[in-house]
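WARN  no MSA supplied for this record, continuing single-sequence
INFO  ligand: adenosine-5'-diphosphate
INFO  echoing inputs
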Amino acid sequence: MYCQVIVDIAHEDVDRVFIYRIPEGLTLEVGMRVHVPFGNRKSIEGIVVEITDSCDLPEARIKDVKEALEDYPAVLPELIGIAQYIKAHSFCTLTQALRLMYPAQMRGQRIHEKKQQAVQLLLNEEKTYTEALEKQKRAPRRYAILEELHGTENGEMLVSELCERLGNCRDALRNLEKSQYVSVYEKELQRKPYTEIESLSAKDPVLTEQQQSVLEKIIPAIDNGKGQFLLYGVTGSGKTEVFIRAVRHTARQGKTAIVLVPEIALTPQMVSWFRSRFGEDAAVLHSRLSIGERYDEWRRIRRGEVHVVIGARSAIFAPLSNIGLIIVDEEHEQSYSSDRTPQYDARVIGQQRCLRSRAVLLLASATPSMRSFALAGRGDYTLLEMPERVKGRSLPDVHIIDMRKELSMGNKSVFSGQLLTGLTRCIERGKQAILFVNRRGYATFVSCRNCGYVVHCEHCDVTMTFHSVGNVLRCHYCGQEMPVPEICPECGSTHIKYFGVGTQRVEDEVHKYFPGVATLRMDNDTTQQKDAHAILLERFRRHEAQVMIGTQMIAKGLDFPDVTMVGIVAADAMLNLPDYRAAERTFQLLTQVAGRAGRAETKGEVFLQTYAPEHYSIQTASRQDYRAFYESEMARRRQTKYPPFTVIVRNVYESLDENKVHEAAQSGFDLIQTFFDRRAYLQKYIIYLRVMPCPIYRIQDKYRWEVLLSIVDLPVCEEAIGKMSEIAGIPVDSVASVCQINPSGLM
Ligand code: ADP
Ligand code: ZN
Ligand code: ZN
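INFO  complex generated
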């Protein structure tokens, strides 16, 4: 027997299968990891992608597989297919794509199961318990051990636990083992994430009519193994309950399900919801797990011990077989697409897995992405709608506040009069409030009020950002820190201050206006530790604070029944970002944030402060009018020739050498030009093609250039995208290059 192996070297030259002989006595399956000799190396890791019983090569040239690394396939055959799909569509090597399918630490055997010694009572008809006790009557320790073990459910106990109860009893154990009353062995221990989070009530609510009718479409699809849905449900319409019922139905059919959630902030709550309904049947995969926990969860899934996997982006590669349902919650989130190599989009991978496993795809959002909604319009997805909140609760009243007027009236505070009144009312009623501060694009930089000097990073062409914790300036691109200067290095003035509104500043203001009111702050600074998110959210839920102040991480999916007021301190901070999706992002974020208010009986109120009150994304978000936003935005994208009508491909070059990087970008540009020169039929689809310095010209001392292509999104243009990627892959001495497709934020 022979097998085809992909070796674990991410280089194009070896991006193909190599044939090996399977030696006598070794059983291999497709997807197993193996050690094979390669070139002049004695041994290298690889993955078996096919097994054959014949081979065209002369016997003498074929080498033997050395050994299998596990006794099970680490990569399910179905996932090999997915890796091949990724290779074909994101222009990486198969090895790079395969590496997505199993924990990184398995490579080089850097992780192992956690094991502990356990002991098991060995009894049978000939060796009964009474007889065993009788024999050990004169050995009190051994006698006690037998008693302890007999008292457990299955006669098994950890040795450490036994010693804790009886004092050191290892000699006695050895003795019992010798006479075969017990066996002592290594037992695998499971590292379990989230044991500390108390689970919520696990009772099933009665479904609303909307939930019922949506499920009536989804459930038959699960049974038939076919269907792709986009669930557009306003915030608070009860999408989670739909997920839970659909997943449960799937599990009852003996099939499995993946639920993708966007971000850490959402995970603890979603996880405890699912855990309280599915218990041990649900596994969790996300980036905050320790390596050990992640590995153990992965293996639990791989062994088929769970029906449900909940996780962030990479959980789409969970090694589940027999998938019946894949759910992508908050499907509009950009975190579902990875722009690291290999680039992939979890929604697209989900679709592929569904097609291959005859499973149902369910994308859901209160603010669907332009792309998904357009696909639903075309009939690629079945659109399901939940336009109303659970139990007839109304959407919050949104007040748009023009901050330019506030300023002209002499109000220089971060709060408008209206927001302050609303907050006072909420606090007096004993309810809770959320104040949202959008930090993205609203850097709190330090500048001199006298001469205008702004503190820049020494290594990057960006301003340093002020951090109240430690009172330091930090560069967000390279991490460099420096103290805040007391006098301006340019003019010597002492009027050097930080500008922009940060969470700390807002918290200080709340304390000033409402002394004695407890607050919580949730931002990058307060959530560094493991589980910090979960702990802060839990404290807010328990009313340890009345006001929570936070950044985007509080925007999504959180459900706090007592929050009746939401203040959006600066709604338009991200409208001016150099990203064609700025309006879409603004709409999504505002709708999601506003959706946190009034989710229980009391109606919610939202105060939205802005300097651009007439902007369509702010107007439509204030009414939670997705369709109106969608129409305006699609019209604008069509007119300005942006995705989904076009594809933007960007090759970024970086180097410490300013000349070399320019040359490299220029020659990349020349290559793509030549490519287009030979394909006249493509030229009419080019919107623009240029080579230029990046908007941020220097990061971490490296100079940066880019080749930017915008081309109409048609199948015939895919070749050009592939060419761009291929060009970025051409190695240039001391210059790094990557190809980004529809990049977010051109920095
Ligand atoms: P969405 O994700 O659509 O914004 P959620 O799933 O968070 O909404 O649901 C909003 C709230 O309504 C939650 O508190 C949830 O527990 C509650 N809820 C959902 N379905 C029902 C139901 N059928 N009956 C009562 N309460 C429900
Ligand atoms: Zn100055
Ligand atoms: Zn820097």
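DSSP finds 22 helices and 33 strands in the chain.
INFO  checksum written, moving to next record
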